[in-house]
Every structure is written in structure tokens, then in C-alpha cells.
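sanity check this chain:
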Amino acid sequence: MKRILILIIMINTLLFSKEIFSNYQIKNIKTAMEVGESIILPNGENIKLILGTLNFLEGSAGQSSKNHYIIYKGKKIKIILGDLEDNMYNKRIFINYKGLKKRVRVQNIYKNVNFNKISLGDMQIQLRTAKRTIKQTPELIHIKHLIHNDNELIRALLHDKRLSYLIAGYYIKLCYIESQKRFKNIPEKSYKHLLHAISRYNGGWNNERYLSQFRKKREQVKQFL
């Protein structure tokens, strides 16, 4: 009877996992966790689970089809950010024009898009956040040149997943250190600094709504430890 119960639990777990995660998500979460394992906080702990959870939480937001618009033959055409990402390299873009999907060359593709205000990639990082993190992190000196090249930094955040996860991970570490300096009444190795850092990743030092979402996702991601 005990074996049957264990078998039922295992089957339910597998079915549950399959329902929650796609193969694409699993691959990204595991890569993020690999990167997070190498990043050590001042309290001596790595951020393996934290970065994997943030990838799962923020990755869903990164797949959103936020609309942007371009002008083609005098007509306003709606496109999605994914199309813009492709256009960065190909200089051409698929658009729906008069009901037909065409691959055309588009001039001034970024005219109506302010990349400084867009969160980019699986980890939803803004350019200014990425630049600040690179500038203040000695471990990222090998990509310091990206601070002065927006196009290359955008490309890295959108397409170089491991690098994107690395920047996100060290941003968490910077937020943790900033919390230690800002909230001196809290012991240096208190878990509250980590909560502040996770909250700060999305905005604000005490973002309870985001922390609640993070905790739920973390329980799901724990199976990959």
C-alpha cells in the first residue's frame, strides 16, 4: 500500500511539472541556476535558487507581446518586440500589411521605440540597470565595453542568455549590499536583506506583492535543485 501511495505521488509530481514548465523554461531555469551558483552573497550563500526563480517569474513577462508601431508606406503598422529583436541584425522585419505577411526593409525602425524604458530579455533588465551593474561589479570587467555601446548591450540582454543571467545575478548582489548599507538597524547577515534585494529587483524595498509571487514560483522551481 505504501509503495502504491509513493508511486501515485511520483506520477502526480511528474504530471504537475509537465503542466507548469515547458522544455524551453526548464532549459532556461537550469542555466540560470548554474550561473546563480557561482554568485556568492555577503552572507556566504549562492543565489542558485533565487536566480532560477527570478528567471521563471520574469521569463513569463519577457514573453509578452507588447505592441509597438512603425510607419510603412504611410500606414501605421503594429509589430511586437520580438520582431524588433530580429530586425536588429537582419535589417528586415515581418509585418502584416494589407492582410499579407511580408518581409520588408524598414527605415528608422527604432523611431517609436525607446529602449531605455523597456525591460529586455528573459530577466527583464533595463539598460540603465545593466550599465550600473556592469560598472559596479569587478567580476563583469570583461564586458565593461558594453556600457558605451547600447546596441551591443541590447543584443546581449536579448540573445545571450547566460550573460543576461549573470548581469541579473550580480544586480541582486548589488541590491543586497545596498540593503545592508541602507538598513543598518538590520543585522548584516539577516535574511531580510535578501528579501529587500529580491523586492528591489522589481521595484521598491518592500514590494510584498512581488515577494508573494516570488515565493510561489520558488516552490515550483525547487524541484530542479
